[in-house]
Amino acid sequence: MTSVERLRARGLRATRPRVVVLDVLDAARADHEHLPVARVAERARAVLPTVSTQAVYDCLDALTGAGLARCIEPAGHPARYEARVGDNHHHLVCRGCGATVDVDCTTGHAPCLSPSDTAGFAVEEAEVVFWGRCPECRTPSTPPPAEREREEVR
């Protein structure tokens, strides 16, 4: 199904910015990326140079509300967006470089975890963020992230 068809199927108008932003998220999904707004905007502008950052935020909000995108907000990191939605997965974030990868839930169907008390809520989803260090950040010869950033600036 094309981006236009997916947008319309969710009751959204298929505006050029929405189509471009959804295409950016789809391409990022193929590369297993979770993109912050700045990166989404950068990639969208490669296709549609006139799209503003505010328009990208508006598109992401509409796509998330329609269930075509998902926003994750790991503590201490900017919000990131992905097109992998409607399944039972969580995320693993590197404490060193911030790399984020999908982790399939292995304990069953959504919400895959049960709280000790629901306080009357109908639980639909559990969001889990696993934290660790990626293979590159675990390598002793790799400088710490702050040091790598200084080297990149030079």
From TrEMBL:
Necessary cofactors: Zn(2+)
A Pfam family annotated for this UniProt entry: FUR
Top-level taxon of the source organism: Bacteria
GO CC list: cytoplasm
GO molecular function term, any single one: transcription cis-regulatory region binding
Cofactor binding, per record: Binds 1 zinc ion per subunit.
Record keywords, A-Z: Cytoplasm, DNA-binding, Iron, Metal-binding, Repressor, Transcription, Transcription regulation, Zinc
GO biological process: negative regulation of DNA-templated transcription; regulation of secondary metabolite biosynthetic process
Main location: cytoplasm
Localization per Swiss-Prot or TrEMBL: Cytoplasm
SUPFAM superfamilies: Winged helix' DNA-binding domain
Amino-acid positions noted as binding Zn(2+) in the UniProt annotation, renumbered to this chain: C94, C97, C134, C137
Annotated family: Belongs to the Fur family.
Protein name as catalogued: Fur family ferric uptake transcriptional regulator
